[in-house]
Amino acid sequence: MNKNIFYVGIAVVVGLFGGWLIFGGSNVDSRANADNSNLPDSHDNSGETAEELWTCSMHPQIMRPEPGACPICGMDLIPAESSAEGLAMNEIKMTKNAMALANIQTSIVGNSKAESGGVISLSGKITENVDETATQPAHFDGRVEKLFVRSLGEKVSMGQRVATVYSPSLVAAHQELITAYRIKESQPQLYQAVRNKFNNWKIHGDVLDNIERTGKVVEQFPIYSHVSGVVTDITVNEGAHIMDGMPIFKVSNLSSVWAEFDAYENQIAQFKKGQNIKIVSNAYPNKTFDASISFIDPVLNTQTRTVTIRAVLKNQEGIFKPGMFVTGKIESNSERSSGQLSIPSSAVLWTGERSLVYLKTNPNEPVFEMREVILGNRSGDIFTIASGLEDGDEIVTNGTFTVDAAAQLQGKKSMMNQGSGEGDKPMSEMRMDLSKNTQDAFRKSMISYLDMKDAFVDGNAKKVATFAIATSEKVAKIPESEQGKMEKSHISKIKQMLTAIAESDAIEKQRNHFVVLNQNMVPIVINIEDMEPKVFIQKCPMANNNRGAFWISADEEIRNPYYGEQMMTCGSVVNTVH
Mean pLDDT for the chain? Predict the structure, then answer.
């Protein structure tokens, strides 16, 4: 009996468990299916657990796990683009929509021939023909009583009276001439010697004849021009004292002028004397003037890496004015190598020191990276490439500035941001051995400097100038004998910038000078020992066209001198000096 009850109990338990498996499991599955009935079958749930990051559009280095405000500028954070994952440090990725709106176009770099037929274009300007210039000097000492040449551009003819001069030495010489004239019969040689002396002073014979005839001394002597041309420089005025040999004015004969052009170092081999050049001026864009190269400067300008190419232009009609901008076109005298790469000028960003292009690094995605190149000759709208690109590279040929702007906003290497270099060197590594007097002078200058910084925050240009003068006076007391080469360079620039700030009455111009001032001030301040009270080195990454700019503050709180009320809290503390 007991065994039967035991078996019945086991059967009941097994039955209940089997029923739960059949009916309970199906209910759970049905509820799960009901909850997911609105989702597509292909939905991938793997991304739902990923943590979304938020960043600042102006400070992409900021990454936060949740939305909020940027700790630098206070702007609302935006979702970080996941599409940027997998990019190299200086690569940027643009959306297809942005590519279309900016009309960004790319081309494959390859060997090509300039459509302009090998014509090299040079920029230049009209200058005076130095071979046709002359100077009217003074031939004796005296004081200018009357000046008849008063303005630049005035025409002067040979023999024209240009000034009257009082000269004590000539007055005495005239008295001597009168005496010698009276004894002319008995002392003819003495008379002739006195008369010849006036020839050395360029005194005309009729003036001497009049003195001999009247027996009266002339106190104001006329000066007659012995040059002709257009006045280009006047070095004296009425009442001025002149000395023998001193220039009174300069003239230039503008019947011929020079057209001078700058040719780059890598173009020199393309030119030779006597080569034909066609010149077009901005004043007469529809006229072409033929000339030939008359001079190629044998010395290279080491600052611009250019040489001067000169041509002489006839100018009897006076249509060319010194200072006019002109363009010269010269046919290249060498055939382009079949292996030489060329790109359109629209692809090149030129900063004055560097030539840059944007390379498309992914053939299937709009991913770009800045590349520095060395340009060869320019023929029309085509540049040859000396180095930096290879055959088959794909570069941006339209919308290059837009791509560069995107790189700047993302903090990547760009035209305005050269990437790592001396400017990125940590402050703690900028070491200088400053003398005690130098350190004392900069400690004292901090008082007026900090007042100047606060005036920048308030946007008060007048107070900025006042405190700049006070700071300059303290820095000026540093003995040059105690300055090393590095310190001397920084202090010299500091003085220049303080002077520029003091002389300006526009706050934006003052702020531009303030950027350079701090680039030289901060390296010195961080090397001062026992700075009391301590100061904070602060930096705004948006200032100076997104290249960043430093300043020194007595307070840890950020009060931005480059933007003031516009973005008062934009910046961060990068160092503390105490």
Answer: 78
